[in-house]
Design brief:
By secondary structure, this protein is mostly helical. The chain is built from one helix and no strands.
Length: 61
């Protein structure tokens, strides 16, 4: 009793695998950009704005 060889599996599922990989990659990229990166930039900008206001207040006093 011979088992039939598995042929064409890569070709059959190639486009599904590629589209899933691209979709998950783009979704992960957006998640990182809006969930992590922009929040970090906002904290950084707020720190530098506070620092600049303190410098201006110290210079005017």
């Amino acid at each position: 009793m011979a088992i039939a060889p598995i042929t064409g599996m890569l070709r059959k599922r190639f486009w599904l695998d590629v589209s899933c990989a691209i979709g998950l990659g783009v979704a992960s990229g957006y998640g990182f950009w809006y969930g992590v990166h922009l929040k970090h930039l906002e904290r950084q900008e707020n720190f530098y704005i506070k620092l600049e206001r303190e410098r201006i207040a110290a210079a005017s006093s």
